[in-house]
Design brief:
Layout (H helix, E strand, L loop, with lengths): L1 E4 L7 H14 L3 E4 L12 H13 L3 E3 L7 E5 L6 E6 L6 H15 L1 E7 L9 H12 L3 E7 L8 E7 L8 E2 L8 E7 L4 H14 L3 E5 L7 E8 L2 E6 L6 H16 L7 H14 L2 E5 L4 H13 L2 E8 L2 E8 L1
Helix pairs in contact: 1-2, 1-3, 1-8, 2-3, 4-7, 5-6, 7-8
Length: 325
């Protein structure tokens, strides 16, 4: 049984998501303890419980200790299988974080999930980032359809994801992808000018870009903006009392800083690719920064797989390489 200390490094939910995904794919019994120990509210939140329970159905796993605020779980997977099912997080918990765990597992046998939860929420990639940056870099047969947006605090968004079986192959992303800057600025249950103002302020920073304005009818009022170019993206959420101009401007500033760097990926994408690099064997990517999430993901995958990661500073970017030991 592989044992993972969930308090390692940044000590967040990512350690649990990566460990569960690898355990399911490799059919390794797993114990994770000290889950989210350093967080304000330690242990399993509803989103993590939904992730665990759905992952257990994907691989017919025995799941022990999966209770609200539990800091320890045991996961004993059997065979992965193709599934078609509905998943409801029950809160505004992030759909994209749920998929960070489930998607690698689904790639083995394929399947389809319809997930209800948050599409544009704090501390996670928006569905627009997931679709237009992450899935582009992954380059696999994955189709994601947004049925309804879900923002904090109600959530209620709905996404359908269809995955075709696909082999894990070498990941090699070394140079920025040159394409036009694109984006989505949206607001729900608010005047459309909120989304338009987010767009205008972003364009003042970026100059020319194709930013679509949307006014979906989500269960909660709110706004978001996501902008991307190639394997780099940024997203910001509106908040009560925060001017739309500030939201759009900040999103554009983050992307502009990434685009000034010679690395191929933004640093958020880098940490999401670590598991795929390890499963694909010899892999290389370049990125702007090395985050705590990236370090934690590397630490977890090296517990499961006989691979070694190396990080090298090259000019203004970092080269992350993975090779068999």
């Amino acid at each position: 049984m592989i044992e993972i200390d969930g308090s390692y490094g940044e000590g967040g939910g990512q350690i649990l998501r990566v460990a569960i995904a690898l355990a399911g794919i490799l059919k390794e019994d797993l114990r994770v303890f000290n889950i989210r120990k350093g967080r304000k509210n330690p242990g399993l939140a509803p989103q993590h419980l939904t992730t665990l329970r759905t992952a257990s159905k994907l691989c017919d796993a025995e799941l022990i200790g999966a209770k609200f605020r539990s800091t320890e779980v045991v996961f004993k997977p059997r065979e992965l299988k193709k599934v078609k099912m509905n998943v409801d997080i029950g809160t505004a918990g992030s759909i994209t974080l749920l998929l960070q765990c489930l998607l690698p597992m689904m790639m083995v046998k394929g399947g389809e999930l319809t997930i209800t939860g948050g599409t544009d929420v704090k501390w996670s990639p928006t569905v627009d980032y997931f679709s237009n940056v992450f899935l582009k870099a992954l380059n696999k047969k994955v189709e994601l359809k947004v049925i309804r947006r879900g923002l904090y605090p109600v959530g209620g968004g709905r996404v359908q994801i269809t995955v075709e079986p696909s082999e894990f192959k070498r990941v090699r992303i070394l140079k920025p992808l040159e394409e036009r800057i694109k984006g989505v600025s949206l607001c729900s249950r608010l005047p459309i000018h909120v989304a338009e103002r987010q767009k205008r302020s972003a364009l003042e920073i970026l100059g020319d870009a194709d930013i679509e304005v949307l006014n979906p009818d989500a269960p909660s009022p709110g706004s978001s903006i996501t902008i991307w170019k190639g394997y780099k993206g940024a997203c910001e959420l509106g908040e009560k009392g925060r001017p739309a101009e500030e939201v759009g401007r900040r999103c554009a500033e983050i992307l502009k800083e990434e685009l000034m760097n010679s690395g191929a990926t933004d640093y958020h994408l880098a940490d999401q690719l670590i598991i795929y690099m390890a499963l694909g064997g010899s892999s290389e990517i370049t990125t702007s920064k090395i985050s705590d999430h990236t370090k934690s993901a590397i630490w977890v995958v090296e517990k499961f797989l006989d691979v070694k990661f190396e990080i090298e500073r090259v000019e203004d970017y970092f080269l992350i390489s993975c090779s068999p030991k």
